[in-house]
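From the shared-data thread, chain only:
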Amino acid sequence: MNLQRQSYFSVSSEGVPIRNTADYSPFGVQLDGRTVQGDSYRYAFNGMEGDNEFKGQGNSYTTEFRQYDTRVGRWLTVDPMMAMRVSFNPYNFGRNNPMLMIDPSGALDDEFDKNGKKISELGGNKIDFHHQDNGDTKVVDRETGASNIITGGERLLKNYTKRDKSTSWKKLFSEWSLGLGTKNSLISDFDDTQIGFFGSMDEITSTYASKGREEVMTSGDSKGQVSFDYTEVNPFTASTDGWEQFLGRANLSYYKLGDKVLFMVNDSKSLTSLSYRILGDHERNIFSVAGNTYQTYIWTESMYEVKSKYIKSNFKHVKSLKDVYDSFIPKIPSFKPSFGF
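Structure, as tokens:
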């Protein structure tokens, strides 16, 4: 069992005696024989104010919005922000995950790291992202608890502006070229929609997604970087797909989460990339346009979906090769014998 400890010290000329100390179970129950409780300190579990008159010592806490019962790990009234998270029971505490979540106010709970610093909620109610002290980001599938580590993920996710999934590549290009809008954009989808960028990646003809799925199916690794060269990503392979044209040569990585796979594409727009390495680039500033912008795209697919699209992609590839082969086979004209007298 993972425990929490909270202590309160009082400094005097006689030393530093402990006035209050308590060990808690994950949902806040004070452990017998491991608690010393004085009368001068009101706050305890999660920084909430104790209300010992209501249900006894350490059993109930008062917050700004609600009353909490540690024995059942539930709030006694509904979440005033429950409309923001309809997939959860409105009486739940910390999304039933008190080792990673705290909810000191009783309103909408947030994600915090071990130092109490708020963490991004970009995963909605499907995926949790936990930034680590070393700059990595731990991703957790809420449904199964399966997790993985994005090495250096904080640099690619934190402080990025979350954009609507319908944001078009034309808008991102316009923002880059005019020096307007958001410098660091993050677009995510965990609901298997086919909107915008994710509609392009959903296609079995997508160069990026197809190779990503191939790596997932053929590699025994739990995560990996997918490399591309100019023979694979160029204006000709992108064809008429606006998103593939816009991406150019981006970076793709995958992270297996049990029966799901999280894909991430990291891209940047700069004069260097748009001019095929002829011109130099520069960071965005008020004195010039076309300063660098950065985009991160994240989505998940089930392993079944990955496998299905991988098979269809290979079949389409084989079929297209057959069409090319057949086009070089000389056609033998049909001959119908004619008998005339």
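Residues 4-112 form one domain.
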